[in-house]
Records
---
Amino acid sequence: MIMNANNLNHKHFICLNGEMLPAGEPSLMHTNRAFCYGDALFETMHANGTKLQFFPAHYSRLEKGMQKLKMEKNGLPDAGNLEALIVKLLNKNHLYKGVRVRLSVFRNTGGFYTPRNNLVSYLAETLPLPDDKYRLNEKGFKTAVFKELSKQADKLANLKTANSLLYISAGMFCKEAGIDDCFILNTEGRLIESVSSNLFLMKEGILLTPALDEGCVAGIMREQIIRIAAKEGLECRQSRISEEDLLSADECFLTNAIAGIRWVVAYRHKRYYSKTARMLVASLNREQFP
């Protein structure tokens, strides 16, 4: 959350606790608990025009995360007022097409590992996207399994917290290996997600995705794809996913709130189709952008 004034347009704004501030000027102290301790949650949301896709689901997940971390909701506006503030920020930044919105909620400064209190602040920022709608990647992703670190399936595993060192390490592994994404394992050695996405497989006509108790992030797009798949008549099972499942699947794709769906073409010697991913992204777009 350190901002470099030299790299930002001073006409661009952020929203800090309801106040619109120039993005190129310092706005957070070095004592900020998100910076010092990773004591924060965040939501990344897709916007088109001034409509936020799946905002109620994002707000609900944020509330549940705050409750788990014992953060008080007093400093956070209710869902309607917060959505209105983000729409105001989009208008102020003249962003009327595809936009990535990041909303961070962090415990207020004070204390060391033990917080002085549980009051929170929030910060919303925006970034234009190349596409207005969800667009399936033309070239499928090449993937591998990241084995240097694994993820514990504890009560924090489903949250989107500011502690992202596991995902950063996995992202660096992808960069060094020259691949597009990689699969993250839980401590039992099963596949649960990728660097920034949830995982889906199509196997023998059934859609499979890791169960939440396996340790994956409770992704908003994951939730929507499960719902849309049911609407399209697909059976979806939340289960345990092994490398053997990955190697025997017909299709593999990844989901997140910003990109929608990204299909995987290769894992090791295995090659995948993209039929189900194409059908689901078309259904997603018809629903969200009629």
Note: The chain is about 25% helix and 30% strand.
---
Amino acid sequence: MNNTENKSLLTKGDLKKCWLTWLFNNQACYNYERMMGTGFLHSMVPVARKLYKEDMEKQREALRRHTGFFNCEPCFASSIVGLTAAMEEQKAQGAEIDDDAVTSVKSGLMGPMSGIGDTVIQGVIVPLLLAFAIDLAKNGNVASPVIYSLIMVAVVFGISYTGFMMGYKKGSDAILKMLENGIVNKIISGANIMGCMVLGALVANYVSVSCGINIQQSADSVFSIQEQLFDAILPKVLPLLLTLGVYKLLQKGHSSIRVMLYIVAVGVIGGLTGILG
């Protein structure tokens, strides 16, 4: 549904209020019954007040449409918020849009937008930025938390605002076109590849395991298994094996706390016996 046929009732300021309300309150009153439903309702308050200034009953009616369940990745969910604002505007202008249509659009887009958002934000952007900030911090840069926060804020604001305006101006047609023309699959596929690369880099840089076994070959010669075997043939193989072992345990249903205890036990035993360096 496009918002270009009739004169806009919502100003740019109204749209910014709607977007900012969602951005800062999307998980307000987060609960198991409605998840982010209350946050979505709150974001629609500026829209309802502007569209039905003098009619409190219509304001209540508009807001009741958004008291149901809603759960989506917050940044990419902004496009759904913008689309819903456009639908409310068209409904106020006399378009035949019933309550079920609004609910159906929201429900239908929650899953696909969450799939994109969780993959891109949680699977790629956050790990990349954290790896960058942690590396700076290890080198003594005390500004690394500030740098990470500023970049993350810029990314979140940029994606959220762009998605919101796309949903409002282009409507469901633009969102559905994006979902249907293969862009989503390409994004997810690229994000998965990037995620594997990030994970590999994190393992190589931040997982530290070494073999402490040395073999006395002669009075003046000691063979170090770590330096002369592993480092020469398969560098970082022990961190890789540890990571794969943890992954396998988690796949088998072991809790993260139990896996951490396993790692502590292996570390203590390996350190006391000299097997691990």
Note: The chain has two domains: 12-194, 209-273.
---
Amino acid sequence: MNDEIYGSAIWMIDAIRRALKGEGSADVKARLAVQDLSPASVRIPVPHRLPACRHLPECVAASMFLAPDVAAALAEIDEFLHWKQNPNYSDELMGEGYMDNYAYAELIGPGGFFLGEDFLMGLMLLGPYRHYPDHHHPAPELYWLLTGPSKWRCDNSAFTERKAGETIWHMPMMSHATKTLDGPLLAIWAWTRDVGVPAKLLERA
């Protein structure tokens, strides 16, 4: 079983590494290169699904056109993924129905296939017509959008529409927010250092 999981996890991570480009990708690849991804370090996640996972088949199908290797690898590891949520979030804070439309899973990190050394990488799901409000964190962060379009902003700027295939790079403590449109969002994300402090929502004016 460990050999099967290792092969599937490495396939996914290598598919991301090969396809990833754009702003922040060099930083992510540099940190990824020093992680222990050996067969001896592989872990068996406790599979866990959340309501937002109902959007995953649609997202995987859409991402086949953009990154076929990543989509194929994701289909292979789907059954092993441990989907979770920031425990500080709630519908009261994020908007009615948000928690049933939000989930993330780690490939590298405490809930992933490899523990990681001050580095996290995973997948994020956000259903249609959702607003992830302004928040920040010490970790530099990359998003690679596998589906789209969606809207993003940094430091209280206007929201800008971003397409599938684009990368978005957030510097430490840079405030940022996301809005989905009529389709769900699936993205690869990575925190490259200072991963011990969770995201914090900003006070609303």
Note: The two ends are 51 Å apart (CA to CA).
